[in-house]
Amino acid sequence: MLKLSDVSVKFGAFTALQNIDIEVSEGELVVLLGANGAGKSTIFNTISGLNKPSSGNIQFNGKSVRGNSPDRMVKEGIVQCAEGKKLFAEMSVQENLMMGGFVHRKQKAQLKQSLAEVYALFPILKDKKDDAAGSMSGGQQQMLAIGRALMAKPKLIMMDEPSIGLAPLIVEQMFSIIQEINKSGTTVLLAEQNANAALKIADRGYVIENGAIVLHGNSKALFHNDAIRKAYIGA
Amino acid sequence: MELFFQQLFNGLTLGSVYILVGIGLTLVFGILHVPNFAHGSLYLIGGYITLMVMKGLGVHYFVAVILSILAIALLAVLMERFVFNPLRDAPPIHDKIAAIGLVLFFEALISLIWGTEYHRMTTPFDSTITVAGVAMTTQRMLVIVVAVVVVVLLQLFLKKTMIGASILAMAQNRDGAFLVGINANVVAMMTFAISGALAAIAASIASPINLVFPAMGHLVILKAFVVVIIGGMGSVPGAIIGGMILGISESLGATYISNDYKDMIAFLLLIIIMTARPKGLFAKGVY
Amino acid sequence: MTLIKLEGLTKRFGGLTAVSDVDFEIEKGKITAIIGPNGAGKSTFFNLISGFHRPTSGSIMFEGKDITKTPAHIGARLGIARTFQTTHLFERSSVIDNVIVGHRLRTKSKLYDAIFRTRREKREEQMAYEKAMTALEFVGLADLATMQVATISQEAKKRVAIALALATDPKVILLDEPAAGINPEETDGLAELMKKIVQNGITVCTIEHKMQMIMELADQILVLNHGAKIAEGTPEEIKTNPTVIEAYLGGESVAEVI
Amino acid sequence: SENGSASEGSKANDDVNTSDGAKELTIGYSGPLSGPAAFYGTETLNGLTLAVEDINDSGGFEVDGQTYKIKLASLDDKYLPNETAANAKRLVQENKAKFIYSPHSGGIYAMQVFNEMEDFIIMGYTSEPGVTEHGNTLNVRIPPRYDSYLEPFTKYEMERFGKRIAFLPTASQYGKDWADALRPVWKEHGGEIVFDESIDFNKDTDFQTIMSNALNAKPDVLFIGGPSEPTALVLKQALDLGFEGGFLVMDQAKPDQMANVIGGGYDLLEGMVGVVPLIESDFPGTASFIEAYQKKYDKIPGSEAGFHYVSLYVLTEAMKAAGTVEDTKAIMAALDEGAKNVPEEKQVYVIPSVDKEGGFEPALRMAYIEDGKIHVLEGE
Amino acid sequence: MRHVLTRRNGMIALLVLSLVFPFAFSENRYVLYIMTVGFIYVIAINGMNILAGFTGQLSLAHAGFFAIGAYSVGILTTKMELNFWLALLLAIIITIVLGFALGIIALRTKEHFFAIYTLIVGYLIYLLIDKWDGLTGGIRGLIGIPVPDPIGPIEFNSPITMYYLVLFFLLVSTVVTVRIVHSLTGRTYMAIRNSEELAQTLGINTRTNKLVSFVISVAFAGLAGGLYASLVRFIGPEIAGTSMVFTFLMYLIVGGIGTLSGPIIGTMLFVWLEQFLQNFQEYRMLIFGPILVLIVIFYPTGLAGAYNSIRGRLRSRRKKDRRALNTASLESAKIHSREVQ
Lengths: 235, 287, 258, 380, 341
Ligand SMILES: Nc1ncnc2c1ncn2[C@@H]1O[C@H](COP(=O)(O)OP(=O)(O)OP(=O)(O)O)[C@@H](O)[C@H]1O
Ligand SMILES: Nc1ncnc2c1ncn2[C@@H]1O[C@H](COP(=O)(O)OP(=O)(O)OP(=O)(O)O)[C@@H](O)[C@H]1O
Ligand SMILES: [Mg+2]
Ligand SMILES: [Mg+2]
Fold this sequence. Notes:
The complex is a heteropentamer.
Chain A: E1 2-11, E2 14-24, E3 29-34, H1 40-48, E4 55-60, E5 63-64, H2 70-76, E6 78-81, H3 93-100, H4 108-121, H5 123-127, H6 138-151, E7 156-160, H7 168-183, E8 187-192, H8 195-201, E9 204-209, E10 212-218, H9 219-224, H10 226-233
Parallel strand pairs in A: 3-8, 3-9, 6-7, 7-8
Antiparallel strand pairs in A: 1-2, 1-4, 4-5, 9-10
Helix pairs in contact in A: 3-6, 4-6
Chain B: H1 2-32, H2 39-57, H3 61-84, H4 92-114, E1 128-131, E2 134-137, H5 138-160, H6 162-172, H7 174-179, H8 184-206, H9 216-231, H10 236-256, H11 262-276
Chain C: E1 2-13, E2 16-27, E3 31-35, H1 42-49, E4 57-62, E5 65-66, H2 72-78, E6 80-82, H3 95-102, H4 111-116, H5 119-139, H6 154-166, E7 172-176, H7 184-199, E8 203-207, H8 211-217, E9 220-225, E10 228-233, H9 235-240, H10 242-249, H11 252-257
Parallel strand pairs in C: 3-8, 3-9, 6-7, 7-8
Antiparallel strand pairs in C: 1-2, 1-4, 4-5, 9-10
Helix pairs in contact in C: 3-5, 3-6, 5-6
């Protein structure tokens, strides 16, 4: 479904990504593991069209989407739930969610349906639907960000460290929600540092270090890999 | 009492013009987070185009106004593309300086093309109606009517359509807007186009009351900033209230306090408001 | 011994009560952890202690002195240092320049000293520099001193933020989720660092979601939910507290997994 | 613009021999060529340019056996006095100009600080009496002083409309000085000032507010003035609000231009008294000047252009009479004689004499509008 | 070789140049005058730089304070007939007092609001000068301001002595600026510029520091204004106008805001550029406007900033070699990528 071949990204003289190859098939849940600054967010931003690759190719459903503008990518069905949330701070929770469905703005009924689904997933958002997004706590904002991404009815959702700053209870919920989202037919590409939890729900994984992929395989294999246990799972 | 109502009417006219200019400014201010000092130039050129189209092509006033709106909207879009978009990541002071560069350029250009003399714009709305001792020219009534209509339409657009909401969304988080599939460039251009169109409308309907001349943008822009600040930047309802406060306080201040000091009254008002509420009257609680 | 004593601490934002009638004591020389679900009011709690927000009601005593109404910069001078949930540094400056400013509050040089480059100014500049280097060495970043902050890793930034707080010569240091977004190996390093800070006589107070780390590290834990205190006690007590499990931990197994 | 600008010839100009054996003499100009007052500045410069061309085309002028041609060096000062000062220094230093024109009192005052030290003559165009009151010995005032208009204007308006006047002049210094001078005169003749404010054309977006207030005081006459166009608009707004009295108009505004602004002929200006527009004048040189000006600039000249034109003839004639192009004192002393020697066909205005302070003394004239027609009244 | 081109040597060279400059142009009072006016602007802009460039607070009332300094000297010397030096001292004190009062209120606002608040205050100062005829001479201005009174044998009635007088104050203001920027106080200001919130948690009283910075800034403006009054000897309200403050700002940005050499580079360059462009008369804004826009877009850190970054790039060549190494290790990392089963 999604295929990155030999993608490199440069920021000025600094090479952030080096010859990345990633493949995600329809319905899969794939995790990207990597330390801080390894390049996970950069990969996402490159797929989203926020960064331009200096070389390599990106294909989605067999079509080259390299160089597409970010809004085109959303229309294609690739939606990112970014690190740092990037919410509309002064709009209400519900308005944020509605904006999430911007590309489907013509289908009013479908939007309503999606909104109900998101509220079912995150009841707290419904309680706070008229509050300004900026006034919510870190964790609540994270839920809103995911909810907003879901509103776009993505074929592929990319989640950048969704568990960051969340309470354990919520983290657990979050991972099961991700699993649920995946099961309901959305392909998921997940960036995580919490390798333990991520590998438990993922089908496959890639390990990124210093902007390059050093390891990849199915999640079981990765989970039992010594190097990974040492670096990402601890103990 | 007659005088009071006359001045109230005058204040309404003035306020309507301030509102139209102020809303354009506040929208751009909200999106770019930068005061566009070149907004006065859009106003200026808007006035000239209406006048020159009327004179040159001999078309009806309304036709000229529509052409002017289109032209200024386009010009504003070009401004966004070639000046403000490249400066998106620069510190805010830079936009101000670039805007000043634009002001200097456009004023010189206008003087070069159409000379530096004052022009008067004559319109079909030149008759006077007197109601209960209050003299109203039809042009002045047109100013108020147009302002009301434009403001209502704009508010509907921003609040009731997703495209309009996307403008508000982008004002708050540009990257976030990208992520939900809003083409931020299109929105930025659209905002500038609206802002330019409003400036053109304001200039076209206010010029028959005043004159058309190269410095006419200066008069309005400073007051428009007062309107924007009183109303809170990016807030359309705020700009409406700000415009009315300013227009009416000016006309009543000139009547009951002093004409010489009436500008000071308006600006002192702003100083007092900002001293009490450092972010303007209608600043939002969050952030 | 009690370092900070809170009584009836309450903070409202409009209709929302972010912190609600909390009584609590922070022990000197210990590590105190604050946990609770998202939006429980933990960060707000810190904002109140550090003087960033003023409480709606209640009082804050620091070393027996009432500091309920003192602004943030005075709090810092009294010895309350903090880091932010989202790392907050002077991105454009070098690491060392960042940390030097941290010691500014312990210097007295004024404009006069700057213009005439008085002996005091020179002495204090030297002092601030040394202090900053010490702090950087303490957190293990001395070799990054001249790097620009924007170019260093997330984990290093967290350490710089701690060094910056340490450079203020604090009595207590408030850390808002220091381990968020860093990997397990680094988390261990951070725990070590926190222990080292306490050993140096500085009280540590931290907000954290990483239970494994907290349960090992903390001497005392405060649990907030909906702004109110729902429990307080040692890690053992908290781990087994049914209210906490229901509201936050969500089953014993979780604490071990994460 | 058509004029050579300052630094093109930065050598000492009067040494440069042109091909026909004539020497070049530089006349400096510093005025508003950009910004809000540019229209006014351009007008004055145009009049001067036309005179320069006329003089040069007719072979220049001869002083003490040497023929001179004039080179005009013009600089823009945006109406800012400190810019005028900088420009004047530049014209003196780089262009060796001995005569510098400036059409605004701020610039003139700024030059008066150093013109005697630097030894150049200020050719000032302002009717403000103040500029000749500080005893500057190298200062020429080209237009008539406005205080001569006060009496006749007052009498005319009072007789025709009544004694109640509302003051609404421009808020410029010039407008204020005019108002200060008019007040005692109006009262002396038994009049009453029922409203006394000013309008700032640079800051006000709408004059109707102040006009409503003024008319509320039920005046018979309105005292207005400033540049022609906004003045005309003020007048029009008074009519819109139903005013039917007279208008006493400051000398800055010209009836012909005002009529143009509010559209059509003089009938809307009924009841106004003011200065005579150049186009309504019939001095020996007026008609040909207007024609030449229209041909070159495609518009009708105002009196500023005319006065600038004639002033350069007065100046060259004064140099001839003094026998020097260098000795500023001698030239100042010869101005009166110069004025008398201006060739008749060049007399766009007749300047019978120049007073000791360097002020031109043209005959007093005023214009009034009755029954939709302009009438000119010649003074003695 | 590298040692010759140090910043200090550059400064000395500039200083020597400015000291001998009048001898080369002793005949041309125009050139001296333009230089002197430029230097006066630099003094004012140094003040603006301390506040906007280093403390991060853009005050658009700066021209207003320049005018207050100028009018104080003007009024005190003409109407009260005070000695110039006393008047200058008083002028600075007056600007400081007024600046202090304004600072206390205005600094409650932040960012754009502060900029616009001060813009409006500046405009009010202008209106006040314009309307208060009795004190300021109103729109006509103040005429006949005397040259500075002689100090011993030194008289100030020639352009050269005025040049040196202004140069002296320029040096003083520059030294003061440099010292502040390189001190703990300067670090404090920059901390506030970079993040006011963080500065507060570090125990910095941002209010007081911003206020002091504001006061230094207006004191420079007042000094410059006072010198301006005695140089031009005729002042009108337009020196308080908005176009004046934007001119200052323009010079500062083009030279490089937040750099030490920015004010002098930007000012001297533009003051002369404007003189040069006089040749184009009414076309000159058609050239000048776009130049300004282009500079701001392509040299956002100003000319001084551009120079610094070029120097920085030359210096960091060595570091680049290290980066290459980094890339090489990535290369090998790729080779090691393998699939685990
Ligand atoms: N816009 C940019 N300009 C310059 N460098 C950048 C930019 N964005 C990212 N980088 C650099 O690229 C590298 C990879 O960053 P990235 O944000 O992709 O890492 P990450 O794996 O997502 O880390 P984290 O876990 O901290 O989110 C880092 O060294 C970062 O500093
Ligand atoms: N400045 C503010 N204005 C209005 N509401 C606020 C403000 N700051 C916080 N809140 C609200 O107070 C509540 C507590 O927020 P706080 O940031 O303290 O939570 P937290 O416990 O730190 O959560 P997290 O673990 O997600 O960071 C939240 O509901 C939040 O929306
Ligand atoms: Mg990331
Ligand atoms: Mg928090």
